[in-house]
Amino acid sequence: MSDTPQGHQSKRPRVTIVDVANGAGVHVSTASRALNPGTSHRISSKVVRKIEKVAEQLGYKRNSLASSLRTQKTGTIGLIVPNLSDPLFSPIIASVEERVAEDGYVTFVANSDYSPVKLRSIVERMSSQFVAGLVVASFELNDPSVELCLELGIPTVAVLRDPRHSRMSSVAMDDAAGVQALVEHVLDLGHKDITYVTPPLAASTAQNRLAGFNAATRLAKAAGCRFDVIEARAYDVAEGERIMGHMLASGLTSTAVLAFNDLLAVGCLVALKSAGVACPEQISLAGVNDLPFMNLLSPPLTTLHTAGRDLGFESADLLMSLIKNHSQPVKRILLTPHLVLRGSTGPARKPGSSPDPSAIVTQSDPISV
Question: Mean pLDDT of all residues in the chain?
Answer without folding.
Answer: 88
